Amino acid sequence: MKENPFSDLTALALRHEIVSTARFLPLRCFFSDDGISYVPPHFHEDLELIHLLSGELSVTVNQKKFTIYPGDTVLFNTNTIHSTLSERADTTAHVLLLPYEHLRRCLPNPESFLFELPLLSRDEADPIKKEGLQKLSSLLAAACKLCQEQPDFYQAQILSLIYELIYLLCTTFPASGKNAAPGKEYRHYDRLRTVTAYIHEHYMEPLTLDELAAQISVTPAYLSRFFKNSLHLTITEYLTSVRMEHAYTDLITTDYPIHEISEKNGFASYAFFVRKFKEAYRTTPLKVRKASEL
């Protein structure tokens, strides 16, 4: 896996997708047709499922890399550092993100639950788990279809599917081992979450390493090592990726002048913004703006 999506992966035509959450639903569920794309290392409390429909997807979970193929479903447990890379234009998938807060309403101690899915293309799944994987993919497909078509009272239908999905995970795919975030590991993720949350809240400002290190009471040198070892990105690379996503969103959803979008999202200069944008998306901000107006 390449470590820097803004230099080593410039050969990829990275695509940007805005995913909206349906009203009154504690989840995000959608059909992804990003094709050639790269999602850099990140983590979140949401439980995430990806069912691959076509193409190939390279997945890295806590520095372990593998490839999934059509028919495979991969699950990212809470606070699991993961990234995905697709180098094929025909890659499509169903994606579900289920917030931790909703799991808390369904499970007595969600932090003690870890799930593990076998891959049909790689692992020998026993008949019960194989049937469970087929049921899981059907539930994901049905939920995504409802989110897309939004018939009357679709929210109630989706919630019914989600409760069934959680029950299936608990009864068919529990993983043995430690809790999701105990002891030292919890402190590690708590520190990382504090820093990344601060970046997401203050990305428009001229953030400094000293300022970020102060958020978790460590030295700037320690923070640099800690962050790079955790996410395999430097803080500058991570901050730039956050600013870039917000800038892209502004380009296609607002009519602000491009130079104002650059300044608004914390870029030090317009030239730097355009250069990083072209590295990330293989196109220019102006072309993206014109395409969004068609």
From TrEMBL:
Residues 193-291 form the HTH araC/xylS-type domain. The keyword DNA-binding applies. Coiled coil: none annotated. It holds the Pfam family HTH_18. SUPFAM superfamilies: Homeodomain-like, Regulatory protein AraC. Keywords: DNA-binding, Transcription, Transcription regulation. The keyword Acetylation does not apply. One of its GO terms (molecular function) is DNA-binding transcription factor activity. InterPro entries: Cupin_2 (IPR013096), Homeodomain-like_sf (IPR009057), HTH-like (IPR037923), HTH_AraC (IPR018060), RmlC-like_jellyroll (IPR014710). It comes from the Bacteria. This is AraC family transcriptional regulator. It comes from Fusicatenibacter faecihominis.
